[in-house]
Amino acid sequence: xxxxxxxxxxxxxxxxxxxxxxxxxxxxxxxxxxxxxxxxxxxxxxxxxxxxxxxxxxxxxxxxxxxxxxxxxxxxxxxxxxxxxxxxxxxxxxxxxxxxxxxxxxxxxxxxxxxxxxxxxxxxxxxxxxxxxxxxxxxxxxxxxxxxxxxxxxxxxxxxxxxxxxxxxxxxxxxxxxxxxxxxxxxxxxxxxxxxxxxxxxxxxxxxxxxxxxxxxxxxxxxxxxxxxxxxxxxxxxxxxxxxxxxxxxxxxxxxxxxxxxxxxxxxxxxxxxxxxxxxxxxxxxxxxxxxxxxxxxxxxxxxxxxxxxxxxxxxxxxxxxxxxxxxxxxxxxxxxxxxxxxxxxxxxxxxxxx
Length: 355
Ligand SMILES: *Cc1c(COP(=O)(O)O)cnc(C)c1O
Fold this sequence. Notes:
single chain, alpha/beta, five-stranded mixed beta sheet, about 35% helix, binds pyridoxal-5'-phosphate
């Protein structure tokens, strides 16, 4: 058995999570089972998992550097993290944060479960201060949709830390950042996005090196019921095999498109964190132009979500869901693996049509 630290992470993504016994198929078959005969490692899937779930967890654990628990969606994983906060506790949340996590945390605050304080993603001093006081510091970097970065390593350099530090690393992917190595307690992914990579599944992951947190997270999945479906687990592990290639290709195209967009007269501002495949930009024509762009692209797709092989555009401002802080005319683009020239041809034509 090869250990994750013996090979490059991109190799680990290919070789990990495979059956080892003689005569097995190379990949774990889909296991549509809720319960098992006695004498093995599994008895009831929601409690002990299944072989393919164990395999996917081992594969991601090797990439993130910490034992991993998979959930039925990113939000199920986020709920399990928020469940760590007791009644009357405090959660620090970024001002730019995935709208579902914002709604979950703020909803809990309205219901009297805990209180929430909001911190600018780039405000390292305030994050450091919060780590001494709050129960959970939820960091999202790059943030969605503004693509601000939080310096996790700098934030975690705090003595007398009280908070559990959880990082939503969905946009970074395990190939852009390894938050556990930077001092985070928990790293979360919506594997719905880059890990799955094909816009055909919902899945979430949590990785942690703290056995106390892992056991509470497992309890939360067991009792909260956010156990993933067997088809999704199969597809996610299959998607993971090509994540390094997809990430490399999409990042190169995103960097090129960010430059080209910056020079286009219809574009006033471009946000690109320097790596990864997300680009957020603003149009001089405001919300109207943004709506028009989304409806006139032919090759790019106008769709929510991100991280698929296809390049997609989404409007994030003027559409509720905690989007009040977003500038008008904002578009978030998730760059896929199509040929760059084709992407720019379509985008340039649709942008030039805005005049
Ligand atoms: C999509 C997403 C989530 C939620 O994940 P689901 O799999 O849709 O439940 C959480 N955080 C970020 C940054 C996301 O993009």
